UniProtKB/TrEMBL annotation:
InterPro entries reported for this sequence: Nucleotide-bd_a/b_plait_sf, RBD_domain_sf, REX1-like_exo, REXO1/3/4-like, Ribonucl_H, RNaseH-like_sf, RNaseH_sf, RRM_dom
Span of domain RRM: 468-542, 563-641
PANTHER family in alphabetical order: RNA EXONUCLEASE 5 (PTHR12801:SF82), RNA EXONUCLEASE REXO1 / RECO3 FAMILY MEMBER-RELATED (PTHR12801)
Name of the protein in question: REXO5 exonuclease
Source organism of this protein record: Lophotis ruficrista
Gene this protein is translated from: Rexo5
UniProt keyword annotation of Metal-binding present: no
Top-level taxon: Eukaryota
One cellular component (GO) term of this entry: nucleus
UniProt entry keywords in alphabetical sequence: Coiled coil, Exonuclease, Hydrolase, Nuclease, RNA-binding
Coiled-coil zones: 668-695
CDD domains listed in its UniProt record: REX1_like
Length: 709
């Protein structure tokens, strides 16, 4: 039986937000596979990648999460067919990195969705290992010197260590400051009867001036000169009289007491020199990536400094050249800061080089290497390689359809007169023949005006706020508000609770923090006796809320909520581990999500349970409803809001409009015609996606991207 490709993702709840790097991981592995050194994404799993027929990315330009939920009911195909949905972290450069430098950039407005206002591009870098270690801000050189523990872990000679008996200290015992001098050090070694022994030592100062460049006579017989790497030959060492002890003495004289040594894998050099130095910067560790991956000095020098070192034409390495390169790399890191280094995306460039070597596509490699530009401060900067480069070096020709397309030379062409219908017709013909396609549909400029977007934003915020709100009553004049709060709090976390006094008898206005809580209150407490009164529970009645029941039903049937249930009435002190124990008897329980309050970080009195299938979720509802955990009676129902949606709703419900209501309503009335037209465009786009989706081959990975406005 033929194996079928599929995608599985375990992200749930708060984890339903992914970065552009994570999406890039998925695209890279799906398109290139293991045979091109790509690895499985860290956040999902592509099953049987080798059976994938192709990858299709549909980009809906000028659209964001705001549009998806404003016109949720109109995206009939999109919300019912696509099995996974994630919020992308804000970024202004993701599409540029996908298409190539300079493509589709709009510096005036780069908001991803409602959550992106005021977020800088540095949010993309938070997961970078360099940023996790050093932070985003520039720091002095002392922040990048290895600690004693790091030196021990990486095999540096340590004073007092049994393995360093007989080693000489450099005598540089003065306190280091950010103005301490840097010195680049590199040694070449030969293999002798003793092991690795120094045969050449080079030392350069902070200006790159060579202070020492000496050949050294090994103490024991040379077994292998390693000429290919060291550049040392038997003939070169015959007249040499300098011994290791002479070099140790000279280094002690040359280095000031607060000197900081810089080198690439400097531990090997110090071990061979049999010297101990307390303050070092190791560029192999400074630029290290995920899981400790280290880059070669030759690669870093080319990628960052634009310098060719260790050339194949030369006989072996030049120790002075290597010492100077390591020094300049450290200076670049210190002067530019971790954020600039992280933006270089060295891993992707290295991958491009490897792919070019495998495919023999030197032109693509040279094109990528030419992306070294000078910034205003004259510091070298390597632009991020685009994803299309990675495909082209493997011999794949990506299909790019839209208002920006690729011509035969690989350059992007703009054709603003192309309509979505024309793009669809070409896609229906060409996509089935391509292994990787990017199809771009666009809204017209009339639909991205700031006043229209502001109006849509307010309407979505207002509607979700109304859906989170219920009115309960009537109550007696002397009713106990705490009793009401306690009873309604059993349905879920409450945002606010106020008494309505404009009516003949008092009512209570309650706004919840999650949709499921409000729905539970309507379903369970309508007609119930609360605080001594038989009450009615209802949502606000507005024009926007007339289709609320339809929307609730569709959210419940959403493919994202399949097998997920909501449980309320929990003690806030319970942890995820406690709940796993309590619910361990439930059949096919896959995972559990315990939401946190976005303001104080504390757990709420509810959770979400995800089961392997819908039937197990239904059976769990029968078990949970009415049962008690730690003395509290639980209430549950089918989930309505997937992880990224409830978080977004929480952020919207916490925000307050800054405009007066009168002014706002005037603006919203002006939007009615534009919104009607936009609704029609959304329906057409959903139909376009459906037609294209039906034309795709089996085992095709399809991604729809709302890149933001």
């Amino acid at each position: 039986q033929e194996k079928s490709s599929r995608l599985s993702a375990t992200l749930f709840g708060e984890d339903c937000e992914i970065s552009h790097d994570q999406l890039f991981e998925l695209l890279k592995y799906a398109a290139l596979g293991k045979c091109h050194n790509a690895t499985q994404p860290s956040w999902c799993h592509v099953h049987h990648q080798s059976h994938l027929a192709g990858v299709v990315v549909i980009v809906l330009h000028e659209m964001s999460q705001l549009h998806f939920y404003k016109f949720y009911l109109h995206f009939r195909h999109l919300r019912k067919v696509f099995q996974h949905r994630f919020t992308l972290t804000p970024s202004s450069n993701f599409l540029a990195s996908l298409y190539g430098e300079g493509a589709n950039r709009n510096p005036q407005n780069t908001a991803q969705d409602l959550t992106s206002t005021g977020v800088s591009k540095s949010s993309d870098l938070q997961c970078d290992p360099i940023i996790r270690k050093y932070g985003l801000e520039k720091q002095g050189l002392t922040s990048y010197t290895l600690t004693l523990d790091e030196q021990k872990k990486n095999g540096y000679p340590i004073k007092g260590s049994p393995q360093c008996k007989g080693f000489i200290c450099t005598g540089c015992d003065q306190q280091r400051t950010d103005s301490s001098p840097l010195f680049g050090l590199d040694c070449e070694m030969c293999l002798t009867a003793k092991g690795n022994e120094v045969t050449r030592v080079s030392l350069v100062d902070a200006q790159g001036q060579c202070l020492l460049n000496e050949l050294v006579k090994p103490e024991t017989t040379v077994v292998n000169y390693r000429t290919r790497f060291s550049g040392i030959t038997r003939k070169m060492l015959l007249p040499v009289k300098t011994r290791l002890s002479d070099i140790q003495t000279r280094l002690k004289k040359l280095l000031p007491r607060d000197a900081v040594l810089v080198g690439h894998s400097l531990n090997c050099d110090l071990q061979a020199l049999e010297m101990i130095h307390p303050s070092v910067i190791d560029t192999s560790l400074l630029f290290a990536r995920n899981e400790g991956q280290r880059f070669k000095l030759k690669f870093l020098a080319k990628a960052i400094l634009g310098k060719e070192i260790q050339c194949e034409k030369k006989l072996g390495h030049d120790a002075t050249e290597d010492a100077r390169a390591a020094l300049e790399l450290a200076q670049f890191f210190i002067e530019q800061g971790p954020a600039k280094v992280a933006e270089l995306n060295l891993e992707m460039l290295l991958t491009t080089e490897k792919l070019a070597e495998v495919s023999g596509n030197k032109a693509a490699l040279q094109s990528q290497r030419c992306r070294v530009q000078k910034q205003p401060n004259d510091s070298p900067h390597l632009a991020k390689p685009c994803f299309l480069d990675c495909l082209q070096v493997t011999g794949q020709t990506p299909l790019l359809l839209g208002r920006q397309e690729l011509d035969s030379s690989g350059l992007r062409q703009s054709n603003l007169s192309t309509s979505n219908k024309q793009i669809l017709q070409r896609a229906l013909e060409d996509v089935p023949l391509s292994t990787f396609s990017i199809i771009q549909f666009s809204l017209g400029p009339e639909y991205i005006a700031s006043h229209l977007l502001a109006g849509l934003c307010e309407k979505v915020r207002s509607k979700f706020t109304d859906m989170l709100t219920i009115y309960a009553g009537p109550f007696e004049d002397s009713f106990c508000l705490k009793s009401v709060e306690k009873e309604f709090g059993k349905c879920g976390p409450i945002q606010s609770l106020t008494v309505v006094t404009e009516t003949y008898q008092p009512y209570v206005h309650i706004q919840y923090k999650v949709l499921e809580a409000a729905q539970l209150a309507v379903e369970i407490l309508n007609g119930a006796e609360v605080a001594g009164s038989c009450i009615k529970v209802q949502r606000p009645v507005t024009a926007a809320m007339l289709d609320c029941d339809v929307l609730i039903k569709e959210l419940e049937l959403d493919v994202e909520n399949e097998g997920v249930i909501y449980v309320a009435g929990l003690k806030k002190s319970l942890t995820a581990i406690d709940l796993y124990k309590e619910f361990s008897q439930l059949k096919d329980l896959e995972t559990l999500f315990l939401p946190k309050d976005l303001q104080n970080g504390k757990h709420r009195n509810c959770c979400f349970l995800k089961f392997q299938n819908s039937q197990s979720a239904v059976e769990a509802l029968d078990v949970i409803n009415g049962c008690t955990v730690k003395g509290r009676k639980l209430r549950s129902r089918h989930a309505l809001a997937s992880g990224h949606l409830w978080r977004w709703i929480s952020q919207m419900s916490d925000s307050n409009g800054k405009q007066g209501r009168h002014t706002l309503f005037e603006k919203l009335e002006q939007l009615s015609d534009s919104e009607q037209d936009l609704r029609k465009e959304v329906k057409k786009l959903d139909q376009h996606i459906e037609k294209l989706y039906r034309r795709l081959q089996d085992n095709t990975l399809c991604i729809v991207l709302f890149p933001g406005v």
